[in-house]
Amino acid sequence: MHEFITNSMFFSVFLTLGAYCIGLMLQKKLKHVLANPLLIAIIITSAVLLLLDIDYTSYKANTSFISFLLTPATVCLAIPLYEQFELLKKNWKAVICGIASGILTCLVSVFIMAFLFKLDHATYVTLLPKSITTAIGIGVTEELGGYVPITVAAIILSGILGNMFAPAFCMLCGITEPIAKGVAIGTSSHAIGTTKALELGEIEGAMSSLSIVVAGLLTVIGAPIFANFI
Amino acid sequence: MKYVKQFTIIAFISLIGEALNHLIPLPIPASIYGVVIMFICLETKIIPLSAVRDTGMFLVGCMQIMFIPATVGLIDTWDVFVPNWIAYTVVIIVSTFAVMLISGKMTQAVISLSKKGEKKNA
Lengths: 230, 122
What we know:
heterodimer, A: mainly alpha, globular, B: mainly alpha
């Protein structure tokens, strides 16, 4: 039985989709920040894997077609961006200033905290690309000689934080302009945050999608410079 | 059939992205090249919006689900995360919200500045 479940592709796929559906249901019912479908799906899936003693490698192999869709889905973020391009053209200065200041904040804040916590060079560079999309972040960390699994964890956790708290946090800080909200979410929490921005509205989604690309590229340029500081 | 045709176009652009990622020695993934190419194709009307929109927006709508398998991988990273977990947690939380605050405020400030500028000129 254990071997069957471990090797069954449909078990892993059903578990993933089922956990997400439970998450959606709870979100609809509870309407609470913590009732976040992505977070709930991750907790349920991890718990079931641990309980049934299914190793992550088999689960990953069995759900590879779900992850495989991530590249075409990211490519399609060009669609909301295209639909809002007029608005972007009108506000491009604000958008670029916003993303650039965000990336600078990320690098500076990681530097300050790494200094305070007395982190070594490898740990410090591991955290520099934490607010950009996973695939670029992995590349940056490899190049700078950091720990890739930690970078992935930091990136995903930043994304989930943004996905969960961005709408409340923006309201709290008085960030009400939809373009500004989109830039804030995309720059701080990449694609995982962008899925939330798309739920907030078309403008938020488009600006957040753009921020993933620009923030990613700016980090590729900025992280190697900051890497010299510790 | 409509969805098959649309997905074929999207897959082809992903393929070009993958080829560029393979050829250019930069840490830029296939999806980022792909999103730029898709945007240029839409903007230049090489690909009409209607040729990709329905399937594309379906994929975008399902994107959260696609992050679940990779995120569940955190259960395997746990052991390397634990020794320094306080530092990691503080850095992740503080810098995520700092970035959100600064980038959002900055965008909003520049927008309202340029709006004031427009009014003056008008």
